[in-house]
Amino acid sequence: MTIAPDSYPTMLTELRSGFDSGLTRPLEWRRGQLDALVRLLEENQDAISQALASDLDKPAQEVLLGELSLLFSEARYARARLR
């Protein structure tokens, strides 16, 4: 998916509006976002590995150990320490 640079100001306004509304403040909302990130990575692990193999010639094991495991670990670490 490619995003046209001329849409950046509108996107920024929408993102700021969401933040300013307090939507992202509740702890459960932030935990839910991190849970969704982990699910997204789990559900798309094969597609991510294939894309990195195709684009960067990375072996699947390297993607899992060097890329995905780090993201899983960071998301879980952040979720466990949210307060």
Descriptive account of the structure:
With 83 residues, this protein is an all-alpha fold. 77% of the residues lie in helices and 0% in strands. The protein is built from four helices and no strands. Helix 2 packs antiparallel against helix 4 and helix 3 packs across helix 4. The longest helix is centred in the last third of the chain and has 22 residues. The N and C termini lie far apart (34 Å). The model has no long low-confidence stretch (mean pLDDT 92).
Mean pLDDT level: 92
Shape: flat
Count of individual beta strands: 0
Helix vs. strand class:
mainly alpha
Which percent band covers the strand fraction? under 5%
In DSSP terms (H or I, runs of 4 or more residues), the helix count works out at: 4
Largest sheet: none
Helicity level, as a percent range?
over 70%
Encode the helix/strand succession as letters: HHHH
Q: Termini separation (Å)?
A: 34 Å
Radius of gyration: 16 Å
Unreliable stretches, pLDDT < 50, 5 or more residues?
A: none
